[in-house]
Design goal:
This protein has one domain. Helices cover 18% and strands 33% of the residues. The two termini are 33 Å apart.
Length: 171
């Protein structure tokens, strides 16, 4: 709680200020362009996307809009009789054709660190491009622009021909 002495549009304000959500400072949406373009320019990436929504409930916590982890479909991730991929299978933590980065915890609390051990897979540059977009989208720094562009409760799919937005049903 903070004691407040200021004005709002020239009208004096005093009293107790209770801070609400500490939202991330927003960045210009134009900064996303090179990150999106890196995936669109890759001939092996056929589509990628993410979900974005405000939870309906959050066990008493404030429900806040956020963007989920991206998924990426490549020319190698084609559904077949033997294998079917859904968006969860195509996230970056263990992608079937982009590879993955392994991590481990080192040290003891409170100085424990999460350390990257290295990349495993066929094309590290492709993986790092996808990871850079993922980190930007999930950082919270573009939430206002993404909410304005694609709405709430949305599944966003990006392809070379354009962006498709569908209603996203979640629990």
């Amino acid at each position: 709680m903070t004691l407040l002495k200021s004005n709002f549009l020239g009208i004096p304000v005093s009293g107790e200020l209770r801070m609400g959500s500490s939202r991330t400072d927003q960045k210009p949406v134009e900064e996303l362009a090179p990150l999106l373009q890196a995936l669109l320019d890759d001939p092996t990436i056929t589509e990628f996307g993410w979900t974005q929504y405000t939870p309906y409930f959050n066990d008493g916590d404030v429900c806040e809009f956020s963007v989920g982890e991206i998924w990426v479909r490549t020319t190698e991730d084609v559904d077949s009789d033997e294998q079917e991929f859904d968006d969860y299978d195509l996230t970056l933590w263990a992608h079937p054709s982009l590879g993955r980065v392994n991590y481990e915890y080192r040290g003891e609390w409170p100085n424990r660190e999460y350390v990257e051990l290295g990349y495993e897979g066929p094309n590290e540059k492709r993986y790092r491009n996808a990871k850079a977009l993922n980190e930007a989208l999930t950082s919270g720094a573009y939430e206002n622009a993404l909410l304005d562009a694609f709405g709430d409760h949305a599944l966003v799919t990006v392809r070379e021909a354009g962006i498709e937005v569908e209603f996203y049903s979640h629990d």
